[in-house]
Amino acid sequence: MVHHHRYNLLKKGGDEEAGTLLFLYYRRRRPNLLSVLFLSLLSCTFILAPHLFSASSSLSHLCSFGVQNEGFVGNIDVNAPLCSSIPNGRICCDRSHFRSDICFMKGDVRTHSPSSSVFLYSSKGNNGFISYVSSMIDDGEQEEHDELQHEKIKPYTRKWEPSIMDTIDELDLISKRANLGVHHPCDVIHNVPAVIFSTGGYTGNLYHEFNDGIMPLYITSQHFNKKVVFFILDYRNWWVIKYGDIISHLSDHPVIDFIGDNRTHCFTEAIIGLRIHDELTVDSSLMRSNESIVDFRNLLDRAYWPRIRGLIQEEEQETVDKKMSISPTSGSVFDYQARKPKLVILTRNGSRAIMNENSLVKTSEEMGFQVQVLRPERTTELAKIYRSLNSSDVMIGVHGAAMTHFLFMKPGSVLIQVIPLGTEWAAETYYGEPARKLGLKYIGYKIKSRESSLFDEYDKDDPVLRNPSSFTKKGWEYTKKIYLEDQTVRLELRRFGKRLARAYYCITGIHPQSSLE
Asked: Is the separation of the CB atoms in 69 and 4 below 8 Å?
C-alpha cells in the first residue's frame, strides 16, 4: 500500500501546488490565451505524474484488490469483473473467486510448450510483434532476461479442491523486456485471441464436463463471436470429439493441444483460465450482454440440430425402404402415440438404479404417457441424447451425473429427480436449482427409507436411515461410500404416482387417465 499512499500525497500536493501557481500568476499579470494553455498543461502534469512513474505498481494493486487506483477509474467500469480492461504489455490475474483463477495477457503474447510457459514481451513491431533483431541492446547490457512479471496458474475451475488441482498442469505466465522475442520467433501468428484451459481433473464425469468445462468455456469466450482459438492443457482427443459440435459454435478455429504442439503461437491477447458462475448455470448479471442459461441452451440447440436432421433423414430413408411391410393401420397408431406427452426415464445400472423400472414404465403408460427408457453410455453420441430429451415433456432420473442431461430439455418441460437417502443437498444444489433457472418445472421426490436398499442392510433405527446428515456432514468420502455407491431404489409407485400425475397435468392441463392415489 506504500505506492497508493505516495500516490494520494502526490495527487493532493500536485492539485494544491498547481492551484497556487495559477492563483499567483493571475494576481501578477493579466493572462493571455497562450499563458492559460501553458499553465493548464503544467497543472495536468502535476496531477498525472504519479500515473506516469508508477504504472506497474498501480496495476499490481489493481489486480490484487479490485479497482482502487483512481488513475484507472475513468477507463474502467467499477462494476466490471477484475482485469476486464488492461493496457498493452501487462499481465493481470483475477484470483478473487474461490472457484477459479483467470489471467489476461495483452500485447506480444507467445506460447512456449516445452517449458509450459506463455511469454509477454513489452515492445512491439509494426505488426504487433517484436521484430527478429539482435538480442544485445545498445548499452551492452542483456536486460532482455529480466522478468517484469511472473504469474503461475492452473487453468481449471476447481481451485477450492486441492486434491484435484494437484493433478492439473501448471502454466508460467512471464512478462519480459523487449528483444527477447528473438529466442521464441513466431511459427504461427494468429489474428484472434487465445483462450487456454485444462480438460483434466474430473473430466470423464458428465456433470464435471459441463459444469467445470463447457459452460465456463461458454461464459469466457462467447463474446468473441467464434473469433478465438482454444488451447487445451491435459489434452484429451476423445473430449474434443465428444464436444466438437459445441466447440465449433464457440470457435471457428481448430483446437490446439498446448503441450503436444511445439510451435510458437503468437497472439495480441490471451485469456488463461475460465470464469465460472455457479453450478450448471450462467448468471446473466455477470455477462457482457446479459446472456443466461437459456442462451447457453439455445447454443446447444444450434450445435446439435444439424446432426439431428441427419439422423431424421436416415430414419426416413429406412422407413421408405420398409414401407411395404408396414400395416395400413400403423400410421394412425403412430399419430396417436405422437399426441401423448413423452416421458423419458433416464436409467442407471448399478448404484442408484431403479430396481422396479419395468413397473414404473407400465404405470407411466397407464397414466397416458408415451415412455422411452434411455440408457446413455459413455460412448453414446450426445446429439442422439439431445434429440430424445429435446422432444420430451417429462424426464425422470435418479440423482447423479446423468441428471446433467436436463440441459437438453426445453424450458417448460418437467424434471422429476428421485432423491436417494443422503443426497438431498446435492440434488437441490447441483440439479434442482439450476433446472428451475433454465425454466423447467422441477419436482424433487425424496424417497422414504423403506424405498432404499439400505433399509435391508441397517436397523430401522440406525442413523444411516434416520439421520443421514449426521454422516454426510463428516465429508464426501462418507457420502460417496454409503449413499452413492451402495444404494439402489425401489419406488413405491402409489406414492410416486402422485408426482407422475402432477407432471401429466402440468404438461397437458388434463388429469391423467389413471391415478394411483
From this structure: yes
